[in-house]
Amino acid sequence: MTATRVLVLNSGSSSVKYQLLDMRDSSRLAGGLVERIGEQSSRLAHTPLATGGGSREWTGPIADHDAALKAVAEELAKDGLGLDSPELAAVGHRVVHGGKHFTEPTVIDDAVLTEIERLIPVAPLHNPANLTGIRTATALRPDLPQVAVFDTAFHTTMPESAARYAIDVETADAHRVRRYGFHGTSHAYVSRATAKLLGKAPEEVNVIVLHLGNGASASAVERGRCVDTSMGLTPLEGLVMGTRSGDTDPAVIFHLARVGGMSIDEIDTLLNKKSGLVGLCGDNDMREIRRRIDEGDARAKLAFDIYIHRLKKYIGAYYAVLGHVDAVVFTAGVGENAAPVRAAALAGLDSLGLAVDAGRNAVRGDEPRLISPAGARVAVAVVPTDEELEIATQTYALVRR
Known about the structure:
Elements: E1 5-11, E2 15-22, E3 27-35, E4 43-47, E5 56-59, H1 65-78, E6 88-95, E7 106-107, H2 110-118, H3 127-140, E8 146-150, H4 160-163, H5 169-174, H6 184-197, E9 206-212, E10 216-222, E11 225-229, H7 251-258, H8 264-273, H9 276-281, H10 286-294, H11 298-322, E12 327-331, H12 332-337, H13 339-346, H14 358-362, E13 369-370, E14 379-382, H15 387-399
Parallel strand pairs: 1-6, 6-8, 9-12, 12-14
Antiparallel strand pairs: 1-2, 2-3, 3-4, 4-5, 7-8, 9-10, 10-11, 13-14
Helix pairs in contact: 1-3, 10-11, 11-13
């Protein structure tokens, strides 16, 4: 029997998201979420898609990631999809930071673990949790290939002119200070799916990808390769996000420390957790912000306008970087669902060949679709992202070589 199933694990600091896929047809057999790990009110929600059964959910204390993954294994076993199945080919792990070293999916061994550990200083919230998930899954199935798929890998094709900051080279190299970019699995999947929507190969098109969720990033993809992206050393740089500031004058940090008397940790918390939309208007849910705008709320309107202004700047900048653009594509929670964001982001850009058809833009759906007018010079699309499928696809391709 040829093993064709891949278990995808996304281990966060206090959560584990998972999906089991059959790579013969990319179908989902099961999926779920464990959240609030380490608390008395931990929650596990599991959906057995293959059997057509209803979702199961329970709450109770789950002490750590080891206990969480064992609970996931038990839920899968109830549906005949246990981790001991000979049909399981590999486990694919989302790893947020791979630095410059990891440019493609990688079978995990001791050397890979050591390098992921060495990158913890540039990804202190994510890489430790990713490592925990890897070690626990390895303990459960030590005979099974464990594959790391890195958020940063897709962006390693950026030229040095885009990847380097204009600071002293020796200092930057000593401390690994450069632009890495994130959301890479989403940008890779969506840019390829956009090419397919246009009836072309990825190598034939230039695409601007706008991944707009609570975290948000843009990328310029030239003939299938990323040449620029908005996030940098960390996911803080770039677009206005739900709770992150995005681009900010670095001197703001010095000012807040010297004049405001704030500590480095306080400023870190401010910029990552108390800024962006929530800092501007108190809400980071775009649906709520639009509702408040409709009611005449000035703070919500200003927050939306700042969000759109930054987004429009990046669209224009990446148009210039690419020189020729075949498509601009919106994805992730806000990008896929917020028609007013898509319309506002491209408003006034007709001279660049960018426009949104109001009727097409208003249509909701789960399939890739064009929302630009018929015959538009540049296609505008909505493409639902699928990071789990991308991780599974890369994992399966690697272990089948």
